[in-house]
Amino acid sequence: MSDPNGLIQPGRPAPGFTLTSTLDGRQTGPEQFRGRPVVLAFYPADWSPVCGDQMSLYQAAPVFDQYDAVLLGISVDSIWSHRAYARSQGIEFPLLADFEPKGEVARRYGEYTAPGEAARVLVVLDQAGTVAWSYVSTPNVNPGADGIFDALDRLAADRGVMAR
Fold first, then answer.
1. For residue range 104-159, what is the model confidence (pLDDT) as tens digits?
2. Helical spans, DSSP H, in 62-136
3. End-to-end Cα, the chain, rounded Å
4. Separation CA 120–CA 129 (nearest Å)
5. In CATH, what is the architecture of 19-163?
6. Cα dihedral 33/89/65/36 (nearest 10)
7. Quick one: which of 1, 70, 93, 110 has the most CB atoms within 10 Å?
């Protein structure tokens, strides 16, 4: 079940957080990337087929660079699971471990589920850290990237710039 407040909605300030990253083991969060759009891709679990397809799709999409956007994958799995998963899947963007206390960040974004997982949710933050777009997907459906790119297009248009 999701947080009683439900999925965080556009226009709200994004809750701040830092979590351990697969890239360097450091604490990483959206505040570090102020001035750039940030995409938060919450997913249920490493090693599940749908999650593998979703994260591999995002890895293969160099379009994120065109928007100067940062992509952060987040699940409640441990950093050790994330590292093995990233290595096996060739994932080079940071995977963040919302492990302890389990699901704390997922709860703050309103999408922690009863089985103890993050729901499959996408959140795009604008350059100031405000939620620009959010979407919850059916657990067994890869949400793809079209909604993310539409949100990034709108952010670029609002700033009067074109994607590179």
1. 999 999 989 878 899 999 999 999 999 999 999 988 999 999 999 999 999 999 87
2. 63-66, 79-89, 104-108
3. 39
4. 21
5. 3-Layer(aba) Sandwich (3.40)
6. -10
7. 110
Three-state helix/strand/coil letters over 12-69: CECCCCCEEECCCCCEECHHHHCCCCEEEEECCCCCCHHHHHHHHHHHCCCHHHHCCC
Q: How confident is the model at residue 19, as a pLDDT? A: 97
The pair of structure tokens assigned to 91 is 């994932």
Taking the CA atoms of the chain, what radius of gyration do you get in angstroms?
Answer: 14
Contact 121, 136 (CB under 8 A): yes
Rounded to the nearest 10 degrees, how much is the dihedral formed by the CA atoms of 131, 52, 59, 129?
10
Parallel/antiparallel/unpaired status of strands 27-28 and 19-21:
antiparallel
CB atoms within 10 A of CB 48: 16
3-state SS class at 7 = coil
Amino acid in position 156: A
Alpha-carbon torsion (89, 50, 72, 126), positive or negative: positive
Domain ranges of the chain: 19-163
The residue from 50, 51, 74, 91 that is catalytic is 51
Q: Does residue 46 carry a catalytic annotation? A: no
